[in-house]
């Protein structure tokens, strides 16, 4: 069982207007340390066309933490896969082998891709990602120079002197048929946003079908993302949930996963074009409450631009809900709160130990 938090480089969320510089070094260090102290295995370092460079953020924070891993969002197409392979392998060596992972994002917003000069359409981006990951992994593993001549990449006599000591995990996000196809082929872990159990099970089946079609016998792990809202009692949890919702609405939808000045523009662009966002909005239209405690109004209010469905209840209720997802094959959870520091501490104190102890007891 792996738990991933979400890092940001300034204080802010959908209910806390961003404050301070976009890259607040002191805050970022404290926030990474809070995740490490809470017992998270990794933190996701996000990416947009206006955000700080994720590799550099991870490198700096790996140096100020001891064991915390970094899942670095990475868009294929902006640097050559051979260069990316060397960059990630170099960081893995400096951070300590096993602390670095790649979260492959083919791109959910045409407009945000264009800000960095990428005008390849969505289907083309997935073809490019397919080829990119092939060259990336081959660069890490080839013991002899190799050639690759494809649609997007043409390298001759490629080789590297820096390789990871152990395989760097490749995560993959998406909810479209193309995402299933490419992620099913390449991903070590396929990442989904938090949908009801039945819908999640259908997505897992699609990922596994794509993996088998690609000739894989070992299936990718599955990550699901949620926004837990905890309370000492059920009543307190729901009171807090409605307060969070009211504050999201009052803020005009917040900023989704982004805290830069282009947050709202990015949010609306993503909702229009991203299949995952469209699925969350469709789930919200079907009803506010699903399964044990999956609550969708936070997704609807924020435009579902990122992981935005909540699990509401006491730590015991939310832990039981997470274990329901473990029961259908989920191996990893990405958990992010609306009150950044307080929620990270509460998850580490009250939630993660409950889930881990139950999973460990089943394994034993």
TrEMBL record:
One of its GO terms (molecular function) is alkanesulfonate monooxygenase activity. It is an enzyme of class 1 (oxidoreductase). Its EC number is 1.14.14.5. The lineage of its organism: Bacteria, Bacillati, Actinomycetota, Actinomycetes, Pseudonocardiales. InterPro entries: Luciferase-like_dom (IPR011251), Luciferase-like_sf (IPR036661), SsuD_RutA_monooxygenase (IPR050172). Residues 1-331 form the Luciferase-like domain. It comes from Actinomycetospora corticicola. It comes from the Bacteria. Keywords: Flavoprotein, FMN, Monooxygenase, Oxidoreductase. This is Alkanesulfonate monooxygenase. One of its GO terms (biological process) is alkanesulfonate catabolic process.
């Amino acid at each position: 069982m792996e738990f991933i938090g979400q890092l940001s480089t300034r204080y802010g969320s959908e209910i806390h207007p961003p404050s301070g510089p976009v890259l607040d070094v002191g805050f970022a260090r404290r926030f990474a340390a809070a995740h490490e102290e809470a017992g998270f295995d990794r933190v996701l370092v996000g990416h947009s066309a206006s955000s700080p460079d994720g590799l550099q953020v991870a490198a700096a924070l790996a140096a100020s933490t001891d064991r915390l891993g970094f899942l670095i969002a990475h868009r294929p197409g902006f640097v050559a896969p051979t260069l990316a392979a060397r960059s990630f392998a170099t960081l893995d060596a400096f951070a300590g082998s096993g602390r670095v992972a790649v979260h492959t994002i083919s791109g959910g917003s045409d407009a945000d891709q264009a800000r960095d000069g990428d005008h390849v359409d969505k289907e083309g981006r997935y073809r490019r990602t397919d080829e990119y990951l092939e060259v990336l992994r081959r660069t890490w593993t080839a013991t002899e120079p190799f050639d690759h001549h494809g649609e997007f990449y043409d390298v001759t006599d490629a080789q590297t002197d820096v390789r990871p000591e152990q395989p760097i995990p490749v995560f993959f996000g998406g909810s479209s048929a193309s995402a299933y196809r490419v992620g099913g082929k390449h991903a070590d872990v396929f990442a989904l946003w938090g949908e009801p159990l039945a819908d999640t099970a259908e997505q897992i089946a699609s990922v596994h079908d794509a993996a088998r079609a690609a000739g894989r016998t070992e299936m990718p792990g599955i990550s699901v993302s949620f926004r837990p809202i905890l309370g000492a009692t059920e009543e307190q949890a729901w009171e807090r949930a409605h307060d969070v919702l009211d504050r999201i609405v009052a803020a005009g939808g917040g900023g989704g996963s982004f805290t830069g000045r282009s947050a709202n523009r990015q949010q609306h662009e993503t909702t229009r074009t991203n299949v995952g966002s469209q699925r969350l909005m469709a789930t919200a239209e079907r009803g506010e409450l699903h399964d044990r405690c999956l609550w969708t109004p936070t997704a609807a209010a924020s435009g579902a631009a990122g992981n935005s469905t909540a699990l509401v209840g006491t730590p015991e209720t939310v832990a039981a809900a997470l274990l329901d997802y473990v029961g259908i094959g989920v191996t990893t959870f990405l958990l992010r709160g609306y009150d950044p520091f307080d929620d990270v501490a509460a998850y580490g104190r009250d939630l993660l130990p409950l889930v881990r102890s139950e999973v460990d007891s089943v394994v034993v």
